[in-house]
Amino acid sequence: MAEDSIKFSFSLALPGTSFSLDVEAALPGRGISAIFGASGSGKTTLLRCIAGLQRVSNGRVSVNDQVWQNGERYWPTHRRPLGYVFQEASLFTHLSVEGNLAYAIKRADSGVSGIDLAEAVSLLGLSPLLKQRPAQLSGGERQRVAIARALLIRPRLLLMDEPLASLDEARKQEILPYLERLRHELAVPMLYVSHSRDEVARLADHLLMLDAGRVVANGPLVESFSRIDLPLTPGDQRGVVLEGRVAERDSEWHLTRVIFDGGMLWIRDSGDELGAMVRLHVHAGDVSIALTPQRDSSILNSLQARVSAITPDSSQAALCLVKLELGASHLLARITRRSAQQLGLEKSQLVWAQIKSVAIVR
Ligand SMILES: Nc1ncnc2c1ncn2[C@@H]1O[C@H](COP(=O)(O)OP(=O)(O)OP(=O)(O)O)[C@@H](O)[C@H]1O
């Protein structure tokens, strides 16, 4: 982990509920850390504690060596240099977009270097919207303004609580590229709450997973996604993230070949240049297992791999998860327990992983 880090520890019981939060963790002081977990696992409560909106008497928070709260000190929310983006943008309705952004600039911490108005407008594509009122904007546009406003106060930490949750799929797809730009172009660390694996796979570098108010995983995203010992919730699509490089573009078939540590995959041409680094998300449900290479199949990607673990799928009795090792990388396959038995799968066995679909997430 980088030297800079975001450290916190909280222990609290919410009065009138059976829920308690008991967490102690350090996250990287750069990039996007996803706070991931099932509904009710405590993600929002954790962000509220970090922001000082939920007071925890014995809590501690420090952000890259700036102490916000410890045994002696308690900075109230307005003193904490943070930006907070909620599920629904809460903009001033009587002000234009420009007016909302100007308000944030007035509140900016002058001691901290950060982005200026022109940069925020360009980063989030806001110039055509500046004169409009929030009521005239789409949900996705409002969220882009809310993110720009949060950045303009020059935060040392940006907290985002499911910023895409209230948007339909089309609007989500519209806003994701802007969030990716923040990840690549800004130094401010972000904690990003989500329960969407696709979103997390696309945006995050690091993952903190909560279950019933406890930390069950805290590590780099690629490594954390390939763990099969973490709790599963019904409907949770397991899958891995592979980081690779574009090695070939086949113009005849409109395909791109991506190599990663342990193998290569053909994907639909993504338009990425040769040599570009890309991220691939492979869902466990899109990987099947064969004992021999299948030459008479429509499946484009068949890779030899070694079984490293098999575990029942706690959310569906008929299924199991198989973890496969390819060089330094991993795949997960979700297959029926019956197939696993019929194939006689066991640890260390060499098999062929057939990959039906791969999503490029950049
Ligand atoms: N103000 C409150 N009063 C009572 N109970 C609360 C309050 N806020 C949260 N809770 C309870 O605390 C638990 C954790 O809630 P929290 O909102 O932090 O979870 P979450 O992981 O963010 O969930 P979701 O993904 O559904 O937003 C839940 O059981 C919730 O019902």
Q: What features would you describe in this structure?
A:
The protein is 21% helix and 36% strand. It is built from eight helices and 20 strands. The model has no long low-confidence stretch (mean pLDDT 90). The chain is globular. It has two domains: 221 residues, P-loop containing nucleotide triphosphate hydrolases (Rossmann fold); 122 residues, OB fold (Dihydrolipoamide Acetyltransferase, E2P) (Beta Barrel). The longest helix has 17 residues. The strands form four sheets. A six-stranded mixed beta sheet has the order 6-7-8-3-9-10, sandwiched between helices. By secondary structure, it is an alpha+beta fold. The structure holds adenosine-5'-triphosphate (ATP). This is Molybdenum ABC transporter ATP-binding protein. It comes from Allohahella marinimesophila. One of its GO terms (molecular function) is ATP binding.
Secondary structure blueprint with pairings:
Blueprint: E1 5-13, E2 20-28, E3 32-36, H1 43-51, E4 60-63, E5 66-69, E6 82-85, H2 97-107, H3 117-123, H4 139-152, E7 157-161, H5 169-185, E8 190-194, H6 197-203, E9 206-211, E10 214-220, H7 221-225, E11 239-250, E12 255-260, E13 263-268, E14 277-283, E15 287-290, E16 301-312, E17 319-326, E18 329-336, H8 337-343, E19 350-355, E20 359-360
Parallel strand pairs: 3-8, 3-9, 6-7, 7-8
Antiparallel strand pairs: 1-2, 1-4, 4-5, 9-10, 11-12, 11-14, 12-13, 14-20, 15-19, 16-17, 16-19, 17-18
Adenosine-5'-triphosphate (ATP) is lined by residues 14, 17, 19, 37, 39-45, 195.
